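Figure 6 in text form: structure in, sequence out.
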């Protein structure tokens, strides 16, 4: 992964030489006191971005698994409930859902909701529909023989799922899960519109103070690129660790 990060870090200097624009990289120059302050301010946004993304991912996986079970049932009503939930949630833009949760839910339920939890709730709801489809596909990919073998051992439905089916399904759905986590990381930038101090919000605030949008947003792109590459590499590492040897 090191060569990829090095390539990305070289992109900005190369880009600087492709235009007559006078780049103001001094705003993020770590050799100056102001540059150090600005860099520290921007990089601090990693905490909120990672926290809101990771918590949303874990909650979405839990809800998505629960939503997936009705789709595996022989009951048409349960299947219909699953399809309605999945199709409705997938049809709502994440930004619209985020605004509704932050501004609408407190009014509807007469509760107080801060920026962080509004972002987590909105991202969790939006992602749970996709997670339900990932789990459904993974579970259905397990051969019927595994189900029959579990039942022959006297395992009930939930024991069969917990001890036999889900561990095998997890190996198959790990790549899609990794992709969905990357998706959440990117969608988490939308929480900046409700005031959460994530990477994007901090970049917006610095642009207002320094009036150098090209430089600051270019650095923001670099931040997300590095973050996504690290996550992608981590997912590939886990895939290799849990892969079943072919011989």
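Output sequence:
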């Amino acid at each position: 992964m090191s060569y990829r990060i090095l390539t990305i870090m070289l992109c900005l200097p190369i880009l600087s030489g492709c235009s007559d624009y006078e780049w103001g990289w001094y705003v993020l120059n770590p050799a100056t006191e102001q540059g150090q302050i600005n860099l520290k301010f921007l990089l601090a946004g990693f905490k909120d971005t990672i926290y809101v993304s990771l918590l949303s991912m874990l909650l979405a996986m839990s809800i998505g698994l629960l939503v997936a079970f009705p789709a595996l049932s022989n009951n048409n009503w349960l299947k219909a409930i699953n399809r309605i939930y999945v199709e409705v949630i997938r049809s709502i833009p994440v930004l619209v859902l985020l605004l509704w949760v932050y501004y609408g839910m407190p009014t509807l339920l007469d509760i107080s909701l801060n920026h962080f939890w509004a972002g987590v709730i909105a991202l969790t709801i939006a992602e749970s529909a996709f997670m339900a489809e990932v789990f459904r596909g993974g579970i259905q990919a397990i051969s019927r023989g595994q189900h029959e073998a579990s039942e022959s051992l006297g395992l009930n439905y939930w024991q069969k799922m917990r001890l036999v089916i889900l561990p095998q399904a997890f190996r198959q759905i790990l790549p899609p899960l990794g992709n969905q986590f990357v998706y959440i990381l990117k969608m988490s930038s939308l929480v900046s519109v409700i005031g959460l101090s994530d990477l994007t919000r901090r970049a917006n605030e610095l642009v207002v103070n320094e009036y150098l949008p090209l430089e600051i947003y270019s650095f923001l792109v670099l931040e997300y690129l590095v973050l996504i590459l690290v996550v992608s590499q981590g997912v590939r590492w886990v895939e290799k660790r849990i892969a079943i040897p072919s011989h």
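Caption detail: Residues 24-44+197-241 form one domain.
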